[in-house]
Structure formats: C-alpha cells, structure tokens
Design goal:
Blueprint lengths: L1 H34 L9 H4 L18 H25 L1 H4 L1 H23 L7
Length: 127
C-alpha cells in the first residue's frame, strides 16, 4: 500500500521534471543553433515590424489598453475555475455527505457576493 503511494508521487515528480526539461531543452537547442549559425538570422524592417492579425497596426508600440479587457478575462477565469471545482464535487457528492454540501454552498455564496459586487460596479457592461 505504501509502495503504491510513493510510486504515485514518483510519477508526479517525473512529469514535473519532463515539464521543466522539455521547454528548457528547446530554448537551449535554439540558442545553440543560433550561436553555431545553423539557422538563419537576417532581421529586416519588415520582420521587425509589429504584426497584429495580418492588419496594419494603428498607433505605436506602447498603446494603453482599457482595463476592462483584463477585468473580463479575470471574471471569466473565476467562473471557469468555479466550474472546475463544482464538477468533481457533484460527481462524488453522495459519498462526501452533507458536510460537503454545506461547504460548497458556502463557497457558492462567497462567489455570489463577488458576482453581485462586480455587477453593481458595472464590470459586466462593455462600454
């Protein structure tokens, strides 16, 4: 039993090591290819120009964005993470018992207060 417990942690550590090693090796191989001149590096004005969806850009490089883009993204993330939390809870609700129902109701109440606050502040309106 204990052997299986440590084996699972070993697999997690192995995957974490691979998740760290693969991107790092890609960066190292790319840098080495540039240093030994295996890949071409010929920057031009066209290559260095700002590229945005195939359209000619309007304005300079340092354009300020409206903060509502980030607010919308954060609100989406909050509700997306909520769905990720609720799904496994709903699957195992019968085995968890009534205490888990109360905990989830408290979680949803806190989320509802945040949602009402965002609504009251006009965060859901696109102006």
């Amino acid at each position: 039993m204990l052997d299986d417990y440590y084996r699972q942690y070993g697999l997690v550590l192995l995957l974490m090591g691979a998740a760290f090693a693969v991107p790092l090796s890609m960066v190292i191989v790319s840098r080495m290819a540039q240093l030994i001149r295996v890949r071409p590096n010929k920057p031009t004005n066209v290559k260095s120009d700002i590229y945005e969806c195939g359209m000619e850009t309007i304005g300079g490089r340092w354009v300020q964005f409206n903060f509502r883009y980030y607010l919308f993204a954060l609100l989406f993330l909050v509700f997306d993470v909520t769905a990720i939390f609720i799904y496994p809870w709903a699957i195992t609700l019968r085995s968890l018992g009534g205490g888990a129902l109360l905990v989830m109701l408290a979680f949803l109440a806190i989320l509802g207060v945040g949602w009402a606050y965002a609504w009251r502040k006009g965060a859901f309106e696109w102006r």
